[in-house]
Design brief:
With 123 residues, this protein is of the alpha+beta class. It contains two helices and eight strands; from the N terminus they run βαββββαβββ. Strands 2-3-4-1-5-8-7-6 form an eight-stranded mixed beta sheet, covered by helices on one side. The longest helix is centred in the N-terminal third of the chain and has 12 residues.
């Protein structure tokens, strides 16, 4: 069964946001070495229930986002469209991680799907 595996928080001032979550919840932040400005969030030890997330620079209209892991992004896209959802950001590679796309459900809620694939690459 697909589960939420990652969340994202959008911020105008990433340092201020990181400091807030560090001080309020004790979360840890580490700048990602990838091609975009992105900080990984550790919310606790792997031995406890829960998920980690990411902090990214806010784009207009962007809110918090949950990412759901799926076995097949293509199958999920077909199911989403058949049930009235829409694609808001086309399938793209996150090198070494997998394939990612963004969607909106019929109620206007945004979410992302990730098909894990360490071989994923641009091009």
């Amino acid at each position: 069964m697909p589960r939420v595996v990652h969340f994202e928080i959008a911020a105008d001032n990433m340092e201020r946001a990181a400091e807030f979550y560090e001080q309020v919840f004790g979360w840890k932040f580490q700048k990602w070495s990838g091609p975009q400005e992105y900080w990984l969030i550790t919310t606790g030890p792997d031995s406890q229930p829960g998920i980690g997330g990411g902090l990214m620079r806010r784009r207009p209209g962007q809110h918090a986002l949950n990412t759901i892991a799926v076995a097949s992004l293509e199958d999920s896209i077909r199911a989403i469209e058949a049930k009235g959802g829409t694609i808001t950001s086309a399938k793209r590679a996150i090198p070494g991680i997998g394939w990612l796309a963004h969607f909106q459900d019929p109620e206007g809620n945004g979410f992302a799907l990730l098909e894990p694939d360490e071989r994923a690459a641009d091009g």
